[in-house]
Every structure is written in structure tokens, then in C-alpha cells.
Write a structure and sequence with these properties.
The structure holds 2 protein chains of 2 kinds. Chain A is mostly helical. Chain A is built from 8 helices and no strands. In chain B, strand 7 and strand 8 form a beta hairpin.
Chain lengths: ~170, ~290
């Protein structure tokens, strides 16, 4: 399967799961909103051009916003993590060896420690920025803090499950 | 100038990032003001089509819930209906006011009293209808009952505020009927054979009578319970009786007995007189015949 096709299918799947499953889950608590869609950006290949990554992140967020009728709300944090992703990856991986033998970030390509650090940091940044924008419109500071923590933890659990369920072939 | 280009090239990603962020923030700000107006109608069309497809699938899972909600809402709305709030019956007083005798010196023979159906069956062999009008409102046994589309039956028993009507759909029901057209106005009883709540039967029609499918059957002038020419139904099927020289008619009722709700009870001001004389004479003749 072509690499691009694989990522397009992934994009559609993530989008539909976010729009039709996770957005329809009955509210567990006011602090918990399940987000998983941004995992698509974290799973993009190492080789992607930084500028392309930015555009993909922005368009992906906008696409979700089209469905949820929230223009810009998800596009902004998506662009943020798309921008920061290369810096983090540069910190954690040995550029030559990993990029040559693996195509995209995963437990196998990066190792448990660096990979979970990469996921946790970007998830946290994404949620913080997203909820910060929400918080600008309403809510108290306590609401903001608790929601960031609760939503981040929920997302991490879901990402963990997703990693367990779908073993990706990341070897080149 | 060259330095500017160099700067842009060096920080191209950062600049793009900032521009995209600005676009996002502007969208958010604009959206919170103009609510939904931000996206073009085209884009809404696309997501709308996908959403409606998806809803087409998922709505089946909610059907039972939706049904339940609708039933509850129906009940709530029905309770709001004026018809359910029963006013104290003023028809008796009205009837006193009604012109009993008009200027041409003709007398009023029938008065109609409104009534609401509160109980009804069509599936049994002897079907009865309960009305919310009783002896306190002037209802007496043997009064005729007529619905918007035709006659319904006769009152058989009465309590203070309710009365029970023997529907035409009852094995024991007999109503004198005739054809609307024709000069002879041949009268015969309409009965029910207990089969189908849509059809009544009329037996032993002489072959001399000119019957066609679709002929209208109305009440005759002979019944003390009904005024003449009230609709009963139309001829649906003509069957020849083998042994006798007669027809049996299957009559499609004009009233749908499953859905009757509002009816009128017919008060015949001369009922007592007519009925008494009728039964008295019959009794006498019956006794005479026996002797």
C-alpha cells in the first residue's frame, strides 16, 4: 500500500471516529472531553517536510472544525503541535539510525521512554492550548486547570489503547 | 532587501506557523460573533451530506426512544385538548329553548345530543360503545346514535353519566333500512354476521327490487329510534340465495367503527308514544294469534 494512501485512510478514520464516535459519547463529566484525532499528526512519518507538516496539521484541524462547526478551535492546537513536533523528535531520536530504519514514530522505533515522553508532551500542549482558547470564552481558572489535566489523562489512556490495538508496521 | 529574503527563508516555518495561528484565532473570534456564518454554504453542504448519511444509519438505533417520546408527547397534547375537559352538559337547557313548534306549526320530532365515545370495540361478536352522556343528560334506552358518517347503533343501557350503545357491529343489532333511490323504498333489517367490522348484511331482499352495486342504504321511516334517510352504507356485493327467490346484500358501512369519537344521540320526542303503541299492538296481535 502506498504510504500516502495509508495516511489518507488514517486521516479519514481519525476524523470519523472523532466526529461520529467520540463527539457523541455521553458526557462523563464536564471536565472530560475525549480527544484522539490529533494522534494522526503524531503518527505522520519522520520524513515529512516541516512546512508540509504545518499545512497538513492546519488543514486537518480545519477539516475537523468543518464537522464540529467550530472554525479554528481545533486547527490552532493542531498547527501548534505540527510546528513543535520536529523539535521534539530531534531531541529524542538519533537522526541517522532511526530515520533510516523506521518510517514513523512508534514504541518500536523510538523506545518506550522517549516515545511516551513525545506523546505526553504533545498531548498536553495540544489540550492546554485548545482548552485555553475555550477558557477565553467562558469558565474559571480552576475549570481550565482541571479540564486540562482530566482531558489529557483521558486522551493518554485512549492513545495507549490505540497503540495496543493497532500494531503499526513502522519498519522501512 | 537581500537580508529580508534571507530572514524570511530562515524563519519560513515559524512565519507560516504564526500566519496559520493568526488565521485560526481570527476564525475563532469571528465565529463567536457571527455564529455559523463563517463557513461558506458550500462547505456546510458537504459536511451536511455526510452528516445526514450518518444520521440515516444511526437514527434506527434511536427509533424506540423516539417512539416513546412521541407517544408521551401525544399524551401530553391530548391532555391539553379542550375536548377532554368535559363541560357540564347544557344541552338539556338548550333543548328547552329549542323551537319545539315552528311558525308553520310543524313540530320538532328529533333533537340531537352531542356525546363523546369513551369506549369502543370492533373485534368481538357483540360490540358495544360507551358514551359519556347518561340519564342525567336525558339519554334513555332505545335512542339512536349517529356519527359524522352514518348511524352507529342504539342505546341499550344508561347510567347517570354514561350510556352503552349496541353498535351495528353486534349480532343482535337490527336496524330497519331502505334504499335511498327508487320509489318503493323497500324496508328490510340490516344486521351483522360477525365477520368483518367493515361490512353489514341485509338478507331476504326480494328479486323484484332493482339493486345495483354502490346503491346507498339509509334508515327507513319505520324505526322509532332513527329519523329516516340517515346514511348506513353502500351495497358492496349482491349474492343470490340458492333456495329462496331473494338476494343477500353485503353492505360496506359508511362509518369506520374503529375510529368513531364524536357522535350524536337522537332524541325522538314521540318515541314513547310510538314505541308504546307499536309494542302494545304487536303484543295484542301476538296474543290474539296464539288464542
Amino acid at each position: 500500500m502506498s504510504n500516502i494512501l495509508k495516511h489518507i485512510i488514517r486521516l479519514i478514520l481519525f476524523l470519523f471516529i472523532q466526529v461520529y464516535v467520540l463527539s457523541n459519547v455521553p458526557l462523563l463529566h464536564q471536565y472530560i472531553t475525549p480527544y484522539l484525532y490529533f494522534l494522526f499528526l503524531l503518527w505522520l512519518p519522520f520524513s515529512i517536510n516541516r512546512w508540509h507538516l504545518l499545512i497538513v496539521g492546519f488543514s486537518f484541524g480545519m477539516l475537523l472544525d468543518y464537522f464540529l462547526h467550530t472554525p479554528g478551535l481545533h486547527a490552532a492546537p493542531c498547527t501548534l503541535i505540527a510546528y513543535l513536533r520536529p523539535f521534539l523528535l530531534n531531541l529524542f531520536i538519533a537522526k541517522d539510525s532511526t530515520e533510516q530504519s523506521f518510517s514513523e514514530p512508534s514504541v518500536r522505533s523510538m523506545g518506550w521512554g522517549p516515545y511516551s515522553f513525545y506523546i505526553v508532551i504533545l498531548t498536553f500542549l495540544h489540550h492546554t492550548y485548545l482548552i485555553f482558547i475555550e477558557w477565553m470564552q467562558f469558565g474559571t481558572f480552576g475549570y481550565f486547570l482541571l479540564k486540562v489535566i482530566a482531558t489529557t489523562l483521558t486522551s493518554l489512556v485512549m492513545i495507549f489503547i490505540a497503540e495496543m490495538l493497532f500494531s503499526r508496521k513502522t519498519k522501512k | 532587501m537581500r537580508n529580508i529574503f534571507l530572514f524570511i527563508r530562515q524563519y519560513f516555518n515559524l512565519i507560516s506557523f504564526l500566519i496559520l495561528q493568526i488565521i485560526c484565532i481570527v476564525s475563532i473570534a469571528k465565529f463567536s460573533k457571527t455564529h455559523e456564518a463563517f463557513f461558506s454554504t458550500k462547505a456546510n453542504e458537504v459536511t451536511g451530506v455526510i452528516n445526514s448519511r450518518y444520521n440515516g444509519i444511526t437514527k434506527y438505533f434511536y427509533l424506540s426512544k423516539v417512539n416513546q417520546d412521541l407517544a408521551l408527547e401525544n399524551t401530553r397534547l391530548r391532555n391539553l385538548l379542550q375536548a377532554n375537559i368535559v363541560a357540564s352538559d347544557s344541552t338539556i337547557i338548550t333543548r328547552v329553548d329549542t323551537l319545539i313548534k315552528d311558525t308553520l306549526n310543524r313540530f320538532r320530532k328529533y333533537t340531537f345530543l352531542p356525546a363523546v365515545v369513551v369506549g369502543n370495540t370492533v373485534s368481538l361478536e357483540s360490540n358495544f360503545i360507551t358514551l359519556e352522556r347518561g340519564s342525567k343528560q336525558g339519554v334513555k334506552p332505545e335512542m339512536g346514535v349517529v356519527g359524522p358518517n352514518g348511524i352507529i347503533g342504539k342505546v341499550v343501557s344508561v347510567s347517570d353519566n354514561y350510556s352503552v350503545v349496541m353498535s351495528l357491529l353486534n349480532r343482535n343489532s337490527k336496524v330497519s333500512a331502505m334504499f335511498k333511490k327508487g320509489k318503493e323504498q323497500y324496508a328490510e333489517n340490516v344486521e351483522w354476521d360477525g365477520n368483518n367490522p367493515d361490512y353489514l348484511v341485509m338478507r331476504k331482499i326480494s328479486k323484484a327490487v332493482d339493486v345495483k352495486k354502490g346503491d346507498t342504504i339509509v334508515t327507513s321511516r319505520y324505526s322509532p329510534s332513527f329519523p329516516s334517510l340517515l346514511m348506513i352504507g353502500t351495497v358492496d356485493k349482491i349474492e343470490k340465495d340458492d333456495e329462496e327467490n331473494t338476494y343477500s346484500l353485503r353492505i360496506k358501512t359508511s362509518t369506520n367503527f374503529r375510529t368513531i369519537q364524536h357522535v350524536n344521540i337522537i332524541l325522538n320526542h314521540y318515541f314513547k308514544e310510538q314505541h308504546l303503541l307499536d309494542s302494545l299492538t304487536r303484543k295484542q296481535h301476538y296474543n290474539l294469534g296464539n288464542e
